[in-house]
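Chapter review: from sequence to fold.
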Amino acid sequence: MGGGVTQATVLVLGLDNSGKSSLLNALRPPEQRASLTVPTVAHKQDQFQSGGVSFSAWDVSGASRMRALWERHYRYANAVIFVVDAADHLRLVVAREELELMLAHPDMFGRRVPLLVLANKSDASHALSATHVAAALGLERIADKPWHICACSALTGSGLADGIAWLARQLREQRSNK
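The C-alpha coordinate string follows.
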Protein backbone atom coordinates (compact mmCIF):
# COMPACT_ATOMS: atom_id res chain seq x y z
CA MET A 1 0.00 0.00 0.00
CA GLY A 2 1.43 3.40 -0.99
CA GLY A 3 1.18 6.67 0.86
CA GLY A 4 -2.54 6.32 1.53
CA VAL A 5 -4.19 6.75 4.88
CA THR A 6 -4.18 3.69 7.13
CA GLN A 7 -7.62 2.77 8.47
CA ALA A 8 -7.76 1.40 12.02
CA THR A 9 -10.42 0.34 14.48
CA VAL A 10 -9.44 1.22 18.03
CA LEU A 11 -11.25 0.27 21.22
CA VAL A 12 -11.31 2.92 23.92
CA LEU A 13 -11.71 1.04 27.19
CA GLY A 14 -11.39 1.80 30.88
CA LEU A 15 -13.47 2.08 34.01
CA ASP A 16 -16.39 4.48 34.21
CA ASN A 17 -15.31 8.05 34.97
CA SER A 18 -11.77 7.47 33.68
CA GLY A 19 -12.28 10.08 30.95
CA LYS A 20 -12.78 8.02 27.76
CA SER A 21 -15.47 10.26 26.25
CA SER A 22 -13.64 13.44 27.27
CA LEU A 23 -10.49 12.08 25.68
CA LEU A 24 -12.22 11.36 22.37
CA ASN A 25 -13.79 14.81 22.51
CA ALA A 26 -10.31 16.35 22.91
CA LEU A 27 -9.13 14.48 19.79
CA ARG A 28 -11.80 16.09 17.62
CA PRO A 29 -11.01 19.25 15.65
CA PRO A 30 -11.77 22.30 17.87
CA GLU A 31 -14.90 23.26 15.91
CA GLN A 32 -16.37 19.75 16.44
CA ARG A 33 -15.79 19.49 20.18
CA ALA A 34 -18.78 19.24 22.48
CA SER A 35 -18.95 21.77 25.29
CA LEU A 36 -20.27 19.05 27.59
CA THR A 37 -19.42 15.35 27.48
CA VAL A 38 -21.79 12.81 28.94
CA PRO A 39 -20.99 9.26 30.07
CA THR A 40 -21.35 6.62 27.39
CA VAL A 41 -24.22 4.18 27.80
CA ALA A 42 -23.34 0.89 26.04
CA HIS A 43 -21.03 2.13 23.24
CA LYS A 44 -20.62 4.84 20.62
CA GLN A 45 -18.40 5.31 17.64
CA ASP A 46 -16.20 8.33 17.02
CA GLN A 47 -13.66 9.26 14.33
CA PHE A 48 -10.34 11.07 14.47
CA GLN A 49 -7.18 11.27 12.39
CA SER A 50 -3.56 11.45 13.43
CA GLY A 51 -0.18 10.61 11.90
CA GLY A 52 -1.56 9.27 8.63
CA VAL A 53 -4.07 7.00 10.39
CA SER A 54 -7.83 7.38 10.24
CA PHE A 55 -9.15 6.00 13.52
CA SER A 56 -12.61 4.56 13.97
CA ALA A 57 -12.85 4.62 17.75
CA TRP A 58 -15.31 2.58 19.77
CA ASP A 59 -15.95 4.17 23.15
CA VAL A 60 -17.36 1.31 25.23
CA SER A 61 -18.95 1.99 28.60
CA GLY A 62 -16.79 1.24 31.62
CA ALA A 63 -19.71 0.86 34.05
CA SER A 64 -19.37 -2.47 35.85
CA ARG A 65 -22.63 -3.87 34.44
CA MET A 66 -21.58 -2.90 30.88
CA ARG A 67 -17.99 -4.23 30.79
CA ALA A 68 -19.18 -7.56 29.38
CA LEU A 69 -19.82 -5.61 26.14
CA TRP A 70 -16.10 -5.05 25.71
CA GLU A 71 -15.46 -8.56 24.39
CA ARG A 72 -17.91 -8.11 21.52
CA HIS A 73 -15.42 -5.69 19.97
CA TYR A 74 -12.10 -7.50 20.56
CA ARG A 75 -11.82 -9.46 17.31
CA TYR A 76 -12.32 -6.30 15.23
CA ALA A 77 -9.79 -4.17 17.12
CA ASN A 78 -6.56 -3.08 15.47
CA ALA A 79 -5.53 -1.29 18.69
CA VAL A 80 -6.68 -0.57 22.24
CA ILE A 81 -6.56 2.67 24.16
CA PHE A 82 -6.96 1.83 27.83
CA VAL A 83 -7.80 4.92 29.88
CA VAL A 84 -6.99 5.02 33.58
CA ASP A 85 -7.82 7.74 36.10
CA ALA A 86 -4.33 8.37 37.53
CA ALA A 87 -5.86 10.27 40.44
CA ASP A 88 -8.16 7.41 41.53
CA HIS A 89 -5.70 5.24 43.47
CA LEU A 90 -8.33 2.90 44.92
CA ARG A 91 -9.77 1.85 41.56
CA LEU A 92 -6.40 1.05 39.99
CA VAL A 93 -6.79 -2.51 41.31
CA VAL A 94 -10.11 -2.86 39.46
CA ALA A 95 -8.58 -1.30 36.33
CA ARG A 96 -5.75 -3.84 36.49
CA GLU A 97 -8.22 -6.74 36.82
CA GLU A 98 -10.22 -5.53 33.81
CA LEU A 99 -7.07 -5.01 31.75
CA GLU A 100 -5.87 -8.53 32.61
CA LEU A 101 -9.26 -10.02 31.65
CA MET A 102 -9.14 -8.20 28.31
CA LEU A 103 -5.57 -9.29 27.57
CA ALA A 104 -6.36 -12.93 28.42
CA HIS A 105 -9.50 -13.10 26.26
CA PRO A 106 -9.14 -15.58 23.34
CA ASP A 107 -9.86 -12.81 20.79
CA MET A 108 -6.98 -10.71 22.20
CA PHE A 109 -4.41 -13.12 23.62
CA GLY A 110 -1.37 -13.60 21.39
CA ARG A 111 -2.40 -10.87 18.92
CA ARG A 112 0.06 -8.02 18.44
CA VAL A 113 -2.62 -5.40 19.01
CA PRO A 114 -0.89 -2.19 20.14
CA LEU A 115 -1.97 -1.09 23.62
CA LEU A 116 -1.83 2.58 24.52
CA VAL A 117 -2.45 3.23 28.21
CA LEU A 118 -3.41 6.80 28.97
CA ALA A 119 -2.89 7.86 32.59
CA ASN A 120 -5.60 10.50 32.44
CA LYS A 121 -6.15 13.30 34.95
CA SER A 122 -2.39 13.47 35.43
CA ASP A 123 -2.76 17.20 36.06
CA ALA A 124 -4.52 16.50 39.38
CA SER A 125 -2.29 17.23 42.38
CA HIS A 126 -2.65 13.70 43.81
CA ALA A 127 -2.32 11.84 40.49
CA LEU A 128 0.20 9.03 40.22
CA SER A 129 2.97 9.33 37.63
CA ALA A 130 2.77 7.25 34.46
CA THR A 131 5.56 5.06 35.87
CA HIS A 132 3.55 4.34 39.02
CA VAL A 133 0.39 3.65 37.00
CA ALA A 134 2.35 1.24 34.76
CA ALA A 135 3.61 -0.62 37.84
CA ALA A 136 0.12 -0.72 39.40
CA LEU A 137 -1.30 -2.19 36.19
CA GLY A 138 1.54 -4.70 35.77
CA LEU A 139 2.31 -3.52 32.24
CA GLU A 140 5.86 -4.89 32.36
CA ARG A 141 4.36 -8.41 32.19
CA ILE A 142 2.75 -7.81 28.78
CA ALA A 143 4.93 -9.69 26.31
CA ASP A 144 2.64 -10.34 23.32
CA LYS A 145 1.79 -6.73 22.46
CA PRO A 146 3.62 -3.47 21.97
CA TRP A 147 2.49 -1.12 24.72
CA HIS A 148 3.11 2.44 25.76
CA ILE A 149 1.90 4.57 28.64
CA CYS A 150 1.73 8.31 28.86
CA ALA A 151 0.42 10.82 31.33
CA CYS A 152 -2.30 13.03 29.90
CA SER A 153 -5.23 15.29 30.62
CA ALA A 154 -8.34 14.92 28.47
CA LEU A 155 -9.49 18.36 29.61
CA THR A 156 -6.37 20.27 28.59
CA GLY A 157 -5.23 17.86 25.86
CA SER A 158 -1.71 17.63 27.30
CA GLY A 159 0.03 14.33 26.61
CA LEU A 160 -2.58 13.10 24.13
CA ALA A 161 -0.64 13.95 20.98
CA ASP A 162 2.40 11.94 22.10
CA GLY A 163 0.34 8.86 22.90
CA ILE A 164 -1.73 8.97 19.73
CA ALA A 165 1.43 9.57 17.63
CA TRP A 166 2.96 6.41 19.15
CA LEU A 167 -0.22 4.45 18.34
CA ALA A 168 -0.32 5.76 14.76
CA ARG A 169 3.35 4.73 14.27
CA GLN A 170 2.61 1.23 15.57
CA LEU A 171 -0.35 0.82 13.23
CA ARG A 172 1.54 2.13 10.18
CA GLU A 173 4.45 -0.26 10.94
CA GLN A 174 2.07 -3.19 11.30
CA ARG A 175 0.47 -2.42 7.93
CA SER A 176 3.83 -2.05 6.19
CA ASN A 177 5.02 -5.40 7.63
CA LYS A 178 2.04 -7.34 6.25
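Two observations follow directly from the output. The first strand starts at residue 6 and ends at 14. Residues 116 and 167 are 7 Å apart (CA to CA).
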